[in-house]
Amino acid sequence: MLLVAGLVFAYYTTWAILLPFFDASSPIHNYFPAREWAIRLPAFVLVLGLSGIGFFVGSTIMKENRKKAQKAKLRAA
């Protein structure tokens, strides 16, 4: 996993930071998508990740509130 993370980091760094310093006619541009995707892709992953975390936290809070309500109902009966 560390190797994959290192390769992804190297690829993204080359794509987002180093690629603008090469001429547009350089063959290295053929190995990378358009530069606007260097911003769109991480932004999409960030929104997706934050949504997943929000969903998890929300569902956990709802489950806990249901358990508390059920315990209070049993105590009152």
TrEMBL record:
<comment type="pathway">
    <text>Protein modification; protein glycosylation.</text>
</comment>
<comment type="similarity">
    <text>Belongs to the DPM2 family.</text>
</comment>
<comment type="function">
    <text>Regulatory subunit of the dolichol-phosphate mannose (DPM) synthase complex; essential for the ER localization.</text>
</comment>
<dbReference type="GO" id="GO:0180047">
    <property type="term" value="P:dolichol phosphate mannose biosynthetic process"/>
</dbReference>
<protein>
    <recommendedName>
        <fullName>Dolichol phosphate-mannose biosynthesis regulatory protein</fullName>
    </recommendedName>
</protein>
<dbReference type="GO" id="GO:0005789">
    <property type="term" value="C:endoplasmic reticulum membrane"/>
</dbReference>
<dbReference type="GO" id="GO:0006506">
    <property type="term" value="P:GPI anchor biosynthetic process"/>
</dbReference>
<comment type="subunit">
    <text>Component of the dolichol-phosphate mannose (DPM) synthase complex.</text>
</comment>
<keyword id="KW-0472">Membrane</keyword>
<keyword id="KW-0812">Transmembrane</keyword>
<keyword id="KW-1133">Transmembrane helix</keyword>
<dbReference type="GO" id="GO:0033185">
    <property type="term" value="C:dolichol-phosphate-mannose synthase complex"/>
</dbReference>
<dbReference type="Pfam" id="PF07297">
    <property type="entry name" value="DPM2"/>
</dbReference>
<dbReference type="InterPro" id="IPR009914">
    <property type="entry name" value="DPM2"/>
</dbReference>
<feature type="transmembrane region" description="Helical">
    <location>
        <begin position="40"/>
        <end position="61"/>
    </location>
</feature>
<dbReference type="GO" id="GO:0030234">
    <property type="term" value="F:enzyme regulator activity"/>
</dbReference>
<keyword id="KW-0256">Endoplasmic reticulum</keyword>
